[in-house]
Amino acid sequence: MIRYLASRIFQGLLVLFALYTITFFLVKAMPGDPFTGEKNIPEDVKRNMREQSGLNDPLFIQYLNYPKAVLLEGSFNYSIKKKRPVVDIIAQAFPASLALGVSALIFAVMLAIPIGVISAFRRNSWVDYSGMAIAMIGICVPSFVIGPLLQISIATHIPALRIAGWDSPIDILLPAITLGLGTAAYLARLTRGGMLEILSQDYIRTARAKGLSTSRIMIVHALRGGLIPSVAFIGPAFAALISGSFIVESIFQIPGMGQHFVTAITDRDEFLVLGLALFYGFLVVVMNLVADLLVGFLNPRVRLAELDA
Amino acid sequence: MPLLEVDNLKVRFHTRNGIVRAVDGVSFAVEKGETVGIVGESGSGKSVTCYSLLGLIPMPPGKIEGGTAMFDGQDLLSLTEKQLSKIRGKRISMIFQDPMTSLNPYLKISTQLTEPLRIHDGLGKSEALDRAIAEMDAVGIPDPKKRIHSYPHEFSGGMRQRVMIAMATITRPEILIADEPTTALDVTIQRQVLDLIKTRQEELGSAVIFITHDLAVVSEVCDFVNVMYAGRFVERAPVGNLFREPRHAYTRALQASIPALQTKGEELYTIPGRPPDLRKEITGCVFAPRCETETREQCLTDHRPELVEVTPHHWVQDCPGCLGRWAR
User: Fold this and answer.
1) Closest residue of A to B52, CA-based?
2) Do B89 and A212 touch (CB under 8 A)?
3) pLDDT digits (tens, 9 = 90+) for A123-158
4) More confident position, B277 or B205
5) Sheet architecture: strand order including B4-15
6) A93-266 adopts what CATH topology?
7) B216 vs A198: CA distance, rounded Å
8) In chain B, what are the domains?
9) pLDDT of residue A67
10) Nearest residue of A to residue B83 by CA position?
């Protein structure tokens, strides 16, 4: 188990390094630099500012300097535009995105798993068709449509809800629904597919031949295997949800991370882009690992294979 | 009165490509402690016959169109799902063909083995576990105290089939339905599993319905044999009669295809052609296109041949073509 974890962590570090490399060169490939703007700054002042940020060093040195600072000093450098440490910016914005993402995931799971299970159990019935039709709509309709629709149709009529803002706990409701709906839709379809796969297995027939009740067959015999595709999907999906959504956070005016992903690029704020990319990469790696461990917990055959490896 | 009496069972599958008459008027009876065989090719309706008794065919597309199956004064075919599930796995239990896929890979053997006891007999956890360990011992699984906490993938195919048998016999059922229990196993293991089923049957006094396509197996385990073809029984007889004097061309062809009974070095006999498409309405003798008797021209074409009793307890479809001398 420890060996497995160690090798997975090592793999994760490799992934992060590859991610860093790609992001670094993509950022460098962008035209302009952090000091390009409408203000006309004299060339020698610009050179001075670049010098301060270490942007005048040869490319290869810059490429090595960043990971060196990260590993040796634990420093993710500072945002050139905002003149604040990258870590501070993420630390300030992440809690809102995290709260929103967790709520969205809870909403998605609570909605999607039951719909998926019931659709699979009653396949080709009206329950199944309507459940899957709604899921299809959920996948197709983008959040910048759902968000305003919720604001108009719900928030304007219920006094407790506000159209936008991030002050009281209830403000999380509508953005969480908006953010979670797409995930829920995808999750419902995955759950249905996973359950259908399991329900067609011989051992479900065995369970029926033993005289088990339908609910026991569903919960004890089918759910465990049927949820595996969903669990594997939830891992990376969770990373995506908690790292912030520019659209949802803009619509509902939430001070999360989403805005930084966009502005960092338009500002050519190199270190902020790198920091955000690595942070997101880190979340994906960790969540994937968690998901794989959960799948191993659910599936004894996988558990065995992992221990052998 | 027989333990189970199936009368004129008809099962159809309403598929997109037409109605499949999987079981078309089948009748048989099972006495206490008796072993009844149902033999036939793949797709002849053997399994569907037994699955429909326990409500295990998928409905839809499957539908039981007629018939009765009297078991202890009640008609299995008209019971509700709830009533039926009290009988399934308790008084009538099943062993399936492929032990690799018939056990749940996600659950420990202990869970799967104690399940019937816990739901049917209301036993507590530790009591059920003790019974399950004893049952594993009875089916010849070594070191059951330890092995019971394993997962199915930690067992070999033969051992898994033993677990299946233990699971089916743990509630001491009156009828055990064995659906090709040896087909998926190694030849060396087949023997052991057959012996095990017989032993358990004798110990528990259960009746067994044995579904197989292997006549050699039938000759060893069955008391009475029903030969099934295209959803109907073509011949029914006590096992001795069936092997001594098979009447129907299909039964004789099946016997001729047992490799062990053929001369060494000769090409193995196979029945020509394929089983008929059960989606098509058949008017005459179903076996006519594959019949190899001298009299095959006389096979019925205008109506289906009826089962008639030629000697006591020996029934055969009354088709003049199929009953004639074999051409080979």
Assistant:
1) A209
2) yes
3) 888 999 998 998 888 889 998 998 999 898 888 888
4) B205
5) B18-30, B4-15, B62-71, B74-75
6) MetI-like fold (1.10.3720)
7) 35
8) 4-229 (3.40.50.300), 248-317 (no CATH)
9) 86
10) A211
The sheet with strand B175-179 has its strands ordered as B92-95, B175-179, B207-212, B35-39, B224-229, B232-238, B314-317, B307-311
Helix (H), strand (E), coil (C) string for B41-60: CCCCCHHHHHHHHCCCCCCC
Residue among B84, B74, B69, B100 nearest B6 (CA): B69
Q: With left for phi above 0 and alpha for psi between -120 and 50, is residue A211 left, alpha or beta?
A: left
How buried is A166 (Cβ within 10 angstroms: 0-12 exposed, 13-18 middle, 19+ buried)? middle
Q: What is the pLDDT of residues B14-40, one digit of tens each?
A: 888 888 888 888 988 898 889 999 998
Among the partner residues B105, B116, B153, nearest to A210 by beta-carbon distance: B116
Find the CB nearest B104 among A211, A221, A304.
A221
Structure tokens at B104: 């749940």
CA distance A1 to chain B (A): 19
User: What is the ipTM for the molecules in this complex?
Assistant: 0.85
From CA B204, how far away is CA B174, in angstroms rounded?
8
Residues of B in Cβ contact (< 8 Å) with A216: 119
From its phi and psi, is residue B59 left (phi > 0), alpha (psi between -120 and 50) or beta?
Answer: beta
